[in-house]
Specification:
Number of helices: 3
Oligomer: single chain
Shape: elongated
Number of strands: 0
Helix content: 40-55%
Strand content: under 5%
Radius of gyration: 16 Å
Length: 71
């Protein structure tokens, strides 16, 4: 069996690979990659602008997805 180099794949390629090869360990490689990334804290529950900040972050993510169809 061929060794698959997950590190050489983009996020989109790795995601497609694990969706097509569910028996492979690609899902774990993808999750490990995501977990290594720093997490951005948008707002805390006690923040008076919590709803506004969350909605703005969601809009930003949606716009990023629309402008990059490969993700």
């Amino acid at each position: 069996m061929n060794q698959v180099n997950y590190d050489a794949m983009s996020d989109a390629e790795l995601k497609q690979y694990f969706l097509q090869h569910r028996e492979d360990t690609a899902l774990q490689a993808y999750l490990n990659r995501l977990n290594k990334r720093p997490r951005m804290i948008i707002a805390t529950p006690s923040d008076p602008d919590f709803d506004t900040k969350i909605q703005a972050a969601i809009r930003q993510q949606l716009q990023a997805k629309q402008s990059d169809p490969t993700s």
